[in-house]
Amino acid sequence: MPTKQEQEQAADAAPQKASYPIPKTPSPPPASSAVPRPRVQNAPDQLETPVKSYPKLEKQKERPPRRIDTPAPSKHKTLAVHYDDENPKQKKLMALVGFLAVAFVVIFARNFIPAGSTPRPTDATEGPAETAVAPPLTAEIKIDWEKPPPFPELPYDPMARPKPEPVVVEPTPPPPEEVKPPEKPDPLKDLVVKGIVHSADRPAALIGDIMVHEGEKVLGCTVLKISRSSVDFEKDGKKWTQQVQRSKHIKDDKEGEIN
To answer: What is the pLDDT of residues 25-71, one digit of tens each?
Structure first.
């Protein structure tokens, strides 16, 4: 026979029927000009929503309180020491312990305290005491050290600043001598009037070794006029008058005669 829980599960799995009426599909409107009003059914005021039931969970069992194990009583008996001043055994034990403590302190002081250090005297041992002064050990030990050779001198001082390099100053060459251009040969140097043969028709002049008349050229110069004591020349637009056996005279039309 199924249990109550199985019945509830089967009820949940089965499809449930709706408790409210389902509206029918409306019929097509009649073929007329007037449109009929739609039919609407009144819905119920409240809709019942199906509630799904879940299986009940069993309550967990409460855990029992944790048990704290108390330690079991020890089988060994503890030694309780009780001091009794009247007990002679305890007096001997205390005296032995004190003697051992003093002996331990003495042995520790001899082994671990250096021999040169003297312990500070206590109040009970303070007083005038003679201390033996040990003789100095340096008097018996002879030091025979050999003097090491001197350290070789360095060729330079490592702490000195480096000297600046000398600056070589090259002597300045003398200025070149100005080369004078060669003097142009004076073509008029040989233009010397040595003599004049004067006549009214055709005068002539002896220029160097050449006999010329008026209108002729000699040494690139044109003879313009021959007078009794001078000859007029023209060259490159310049005119001058030269006397017999004398230096030339340049004659300019604007400036006059120039020596």
So the answer is: 666 666 555 566 666 566 555 556 666 676 666 666 677 777 776 66
Return the DSSP state at 111. H
Contacts (Cβ under 8 Å, ≥6 apart) of 222? 215, 216, 233, 234, 235
For the domain made up of 188-258, the CATH class stated in words is: mainly beta
pTM score > 0.70 for this model?
no
Buried b (16+ CB within 10 A) or exposed e, 206-233: bbeeeebeeeeebeebebeebeeebbbb
Structure tokens at 16: 């449930």
Q: How far is Cα 105 from Cα 113, in angstroms, rounded to an integer?
A: 11
DSSP 3-state helix, strand, coil percentages of the chain (rounded to 5)? 15, 15, 70
Count of other CB atoms within 10 angstroms of residue 249 = 16
* Nearest Cα to Cα of residue 20 among 40, 51, 46: 46
Q: Chain centroid to CA 132: how far?
A: 72
* β pairing state of 204-207 and 210-213: antiparallel
Q: Where are the domains of the chain?
A: 188-258
For 85-124, give one letter per residue: b (16+ CB within 10 A) or e. Answer: eeeeeeeeeeeeeeeeeeeeeeeeeeeeeeeeeeeeeeee
Contact between 222 and 212 (Cβ < 8 Å): no
The three-class DSSP label of residue 161 is coil
Q: How far apart are CA 5 and CA 11, in angstroms?
A: 10
